[in-house]
Structures are given as C-alpha cells and as structure tokens.
Specification:
By secondary structure, this protein is an alpha+beta fold. It is built from 14 helices and five strands. It has helices at residues 2-15, 19-23, 38-62, 64-67, 71-84, 86-117, 147-163, 183-194, 199-208, 215-224, 229-236, 239-254, 276-294, 298-306, and strands at 128-130, 136-142, 167-173, 262-265, 268-271. A five-stranded mixed sheet has the order 1-3-2-4-5. Helix 7 links the parallel strand 2 and strand 3. Helix 1 packs antiparallel against helix 3 (38-62), helix 3 crosses helix 6 and helix 8 (183-194) packs across helix 12. It is globular, with a radius of gyration of 26 Å. It starts with a helix and ends with a helix.
Length: 307
C-alpha cells in the first residue's frame, strides 16, 4: 500500500512535465492588452493535473499489477500516453477556459449592475475630484507609465472642466509592471502623496513628465509640493499602500480589465484611449438612462391617480 501511495503522489511530477512549454505563452504581451488574468490559465492547468492524478491514482489502486514491481515501466506508460494524446490536454484546458470565461463574465456583469445601482460603492478609499454628490461616478484604471493613459488624462481634464459639477472622478491604480518598470514605484509614490492631501498634484506631475519617471522625479515633486519627506518615504513603503493598490488591482480583475486605460461610468464600460466625444456620448447615455429610470411607470401613475 505504501508503495502505491508513493507512486500515486509521485505522478504529480510526471504530469507537470509539459509546463515549460506551456509557460512560454506568458511571454506573449501587447502594450494595450497585457493583463490577461494569467491565473485563470494556470488554475485550469492545475485542475486538469489534479484530475489526471486522481484518475491515474485510481488506476493504480484498481490494477496494482501495473504499478507494483515495475514502477519505471508504469511511469514510461504514463508519459507515453501523455505524449501520444497532447490534444487531450489542450481540449481539457480549452473546456476549462470556456467555463472560466463564462464565470468571469457573470462576475463582471454583477459588478457593473451593482455600480449602476449604487455608484459610490465602488469608490472605496480612492482619491476623487469633481462633484461631491457621487451620483455619477467615473472610474479610471490607469498606469503612470502608460502613454495611452497620459493621453486620456488630457482628455479627462477637458471632460471634467465641462462636467465636473456633475461627475465624480475616482482614480484606480493598475500598474502594468511587466512592461512598465516605473509603474509600481510611481503608483506607490502617488498614493503616499495622497496621504498628505496631494494626490492629484502628484498625479499631474507624473503624467507631465512620463519620460522622467524615477526616484529623482518622485523626490523632487514631493519637495516641490511641500510634503513631509520622512512621512512620504514611510507611507510609500508601507503595507497600507500595498493593500490599497492591491485592492484596485483586484477590482480590475473582477472587471476582466486587460489593459490601460480603462474607464467605467455608472456601470458603462469605455476601454482604451478614448477621445472627448466618446466620453460626452457616454455621459449623455448614462444621464438619459438615469432620467428614464427615475420616471414613474405609466401603470404606477395610473394606479396612484385612481386611488
């Protein structure tokens, strides 16, 4: 029994042999579509591996004559089955990925519906500007080293000048550290500036000098804004900063965000490097929907007047 158990758990090493080949998929990146929620893929691989381990383990217990006394021969058979049927692995992963995509879409739609019904609920501790009413909430998932984000930041500035009395803009950190080495340090620095009430000023300085992102710029900007430098350094290396930025990233995952910038206005999604007319059209759509939803239904009006 002990020999069979050892072989049962040892199969894990055999099954994960194709991993180096599969891992190469991680190297495929695109500037505007980098965050592919890779965890879904590897969760699928892990689930497949566990299932195969279970099947093979049951086979060992059911047919011990194939396992005991000829461990090497059995291992060779297992490897040969995997090599001869690579399409089985691919098919299993594809099925799992389809299930995951469907589940992810359900989660995303549930989040968007919640935001439509209660826009302020998604702001959390994120820095905001614009209307204090929080009736219309515009989320921006952004990366300080992303050139498209810098472009959209200029568009948002124009948009908020026009609609800032009605729209609340909330900033969500989504640093794409795999392709932007300064995205994460910049995010931590901006968050730390926010602890002293200077997030938006720091935010503007970073986007105005995207080619200079680095420690000298962070320190120079902190000094220019009159920040307490000891607190600034302490805050940006704190667990609180990591938790806050991590929560933003987790929210992006719920929305299946694949790149920056990514905007959401009261549950309506607007990804990519949007232009001012795009935002204006979305604003008109959302405000029209809110107006329609606030109008009483004809039946409700009629029943009220007949009482």
């Amino acid at each position: 029994m002990r020999d069979r158990l050892s072989l049962f758990w040892g199969l894990n090493e055999l099954i994960l042999l194709p991993y180096p080949q599969i891992k190469r998929i991680k190297t495929v990146r695109n500037e505007n579509s980098v965050l592919k929620l890779k965890s879904r893929f590897f969760q699928g691989l892990a689930q497949y591996a566990c299932s195969l381990i279970l099947i093979l383990g049951l086979t060992i217990f059911a047919f011990p004559e194939y396992a005991l006394g000829s461990e090497t021969r059995f291992e060779e058979k297992v490897l040969q089955v995997i090599r001869n049927n690579p399409e089985t692995i691919v098919e299993a992963l594809q099925i799992y990925q389809q299930q995951q995509r469907a589940q992810q879409e359900e989660i995303k739609q549930a989040f968007l519906q919640e935001m439509k019904g209660d826009p302020p609920s998604v702001i959390g501790q994120s820095p905001t500007k614009g209307s204090s009413d929080r009736d219309l909430v515009l989320l921006i998932f952004s990366d300080f080293q992303c050139p498209y984000c810098a472009r959209v930041d200029e568009t948002l500035e124009k948009f908020m000048k026009q609609y800032g009395d009605r729209v609340t803009l909330a900033y969500k950190h989504l640093p794409l550290a795999e392709i932007h080495p300064q995205a994460l340090p910049a995010a931590f620095s901006a968050w730390a500036a926010g602890q002293q009430g200077k997030f938006w000023e720091f935010h503007d300085a970073l986007f105005a000098h995207t080619s200079e992102l680095g420690e000298p710029l962070y320190q120079k900007t902190a000094k220019r804004l009159g920040l307490d430098l000891e607190q600034f350094d302490r805050d940006r290396s704190s667990n609180a900063a990591a938790i806050a930025i991590g929560e933003d990233i987790q929210m992006a995952r719920l929305l299946a965000v694949e790149g920056t910038p990514f905007l959401v206005l009261n549950g309506e999604v607007l990804p990519g490097a949007v232009e001012l007319p795009d935002l204006q059209q979305l604003f008109a759509k959302v405000t029209r929907a809110k107006l329609d939803s606030s109008q009483p239904l004809p039946g409700a009006v009629e029943s009220k007047t007949t009482k």
